[in-house]
Amino acid sequence: MHGLLDRLAMAFEDRVPRLPQPWRPGPDLPFDPSGPPLPLPPLRRTAARGARRGTAVLVPPWKIRSTAILAGWVRALTARGFDVWIPVPPLHLERTPPGERSGEGAFTPDLGRTREVLDTAVRELRGCLEAAAAEGGGVALVGLSLGALTAAWAATGPERVDAAALVAPPADLAAVFLRTAIGRRYATLARRAGAPVPEDGELERRLGWLSPLHRTPTAGRLLVAGGRFDAIALDGPGRLARAWNTPLHELPRSHLTLLFGSPSLRREVADFAAAAGWPTSSPPAARP
């Protein structure tokens, strides 16, 4: 039943009319978001309840229509003493171009454009972490779904992160593109545009560059959570956990029920972030 919910959500997305979108491979080199942090994007801020412990940067999932759906996450984190900042990702909410749906253009068969959006999202998130550290107290980073992929990149950067919790990260983008309805949708749009996606090997190579599997995390503590019946991120959480040599916290959930239907996970993530304690050293150096 959990996996069925994911598949129904993808099926409803398939019914949305979309214009053809040609495949464009973008630069022929690995993605590297190591430029300077960007100014803060629009933020939704909620103050901590009780004694303040620090700041939690909560990175929302793809195509979010309202941050109200994250209220359970905000309650859990503020109850543990965190101010919560929700950055609005590029091309979402008030940053959506006129006539488009929130988040629609953030991931397309145009990998050059996708890389530009991902670069902006990661460097803005690094700006948020830098600003959060300046507020004093601990710095927690919580990413959800595609927001967890962005957060994973930021968790390998030079900015201080005392605890990073990555929930359902689609770390294996090639698997998402080749084995889910999301990938089939965009492959169809590219074919209709007369510029189809390449054969599997080339596609896997280029999408692999958009994943931080080859990076070394610099966050103080890590938690990677995945759903056993996830039909969207598939084994992305497991691959990230293995690559980063950290245990996978797996729950009997799907992608969507893990993100929005598990109060126990929200409490565990908030407790994990709070257990990181107060910063006692300078930020770790950036690693390649």
Q: Output the CATH class name.
A: Alpha Beta
Instruction: Give the number of DSSP strands.
Output: 7
Largest sheet: 7 strands, mixed
- What is the correct CATH architecture? 3-Layer(aba) Sandwich
Number of domains: 1
What is the topology?
Layout (H helix, E strand, L loop, with lengths): L1 H13 L28 E4 L7 E6 L11 H9 L2 E6 L23 H24 L3 E7 L1 H9 L8 E5 L5 H7 L1 H12 L7 H9 L13 E6 L8 H8 L4 E4 L3 H6 L2 H13 L13
Parallel strand pairs: 2-3, 2-4, 4-5, 5-6, 6-7
Antiparallel strand pairs: 1-3
Helix pairs in contact: 2-10, 3-4, 5-6, 5-7
Key phrases:
single chain, 288 residues, alpha/beta, Rossmann fold, 7-stranded mixed sheet, 13% strand, disordered C terminus
Can you put this structure into words, describing what you see?
- Helices cover 38% and strands 13% of the residues.
- With 288 residues, the protein is an alpha/beta fold.
- It has a single domain, classed as Rossmann fold (3-Layer(aba) Sandwich), CATH 3.40.50.1820.
- It has a seven-stranded mixed β-sheet with strand order 1-3-2-4-5-6-7, sandwiched between helices.
- Strand 4, helix 4 (146-154) and strand 5 form a beta-alpha-beta unit.
- Helix 2 packs parallel to helix 10 (263-275) and helix 5 packs across helix 6 (181-192).
- The longest helix has 24 residues, at 111-134.
- The protein starts with a helix and ends in a 13-residue tail after the last helix.
- Mean pLDDT is 93; it is low at 279-288.
